[in-house]
Here is the input.
Amino acid sequence: MNYRCKVCEKPIDVHDHVRGGLCRSAECRRRYAGRVAHEEYQEHRAALRRTAEEIRDRRIPPTPEPLPAAALPSNDRPVVPLPEERREAFAAYLRSLVLQVYAEPGDQHHPLRPALESEPLARAACALCRGHCCLKGGIHNAYLDATTIERVRAERPATDPEELVETYLAAIPPESFEEACVYQSATGCVLPEDLRATICGAFFCDGLAEFRVAAREAGATRGFGVAFRDGVPVREAILTPDGPHPPDE
Here is the structure.
């Protein structure tokens, strides 16, 4: 029989066919491993969506109005007082960043406005999740970078660097999620939207991206969200323009 590599389709011998159907090229093996990982992830996402839909169907009586389901991640860290050393480290990073940007001519960057999220159902889904994607803002200094500060500088031309630093520092709440973004409080991000990193308004996790498409296609005014931790549902809510609400309210 004529056997061919699953990736490059070049002829392979029977031994390579039995060992997995790949030639001996490292690139083919790398590409195939990536393909398998992607397929497994898509199957995982589909399983989460099915579970969210099954929970919705058990909890909510059928209605003529579409109720798309969102399968979301979950932030389950505790809210704790912000350690002073974390505040000081963030302040040092911020001051260095702001001074660096202000030291450069104003036309060195092309400021990008953040894609501020104005969709109320998407906001409700994020509130149910409690900001899983914001957790890494702890180690990445609220995702603030030179592009963000240059945009803020362009939008606030009368603000000097020290004033801008103090504006950011004054917004830090006394408590936030443990080891997360310093602005990530129990009630959500407390930093004004025009001061947030551009990525904060432009990034959508896969669960939220899927839900946005489903809600738009269905013309839905409400949704049903389930937050998962390690594949296990931990919270559920009706998603409305006013935010998430328990299904039994």
The chain has a mean pLDDT of 91. The longest strand covers residues 232-240.
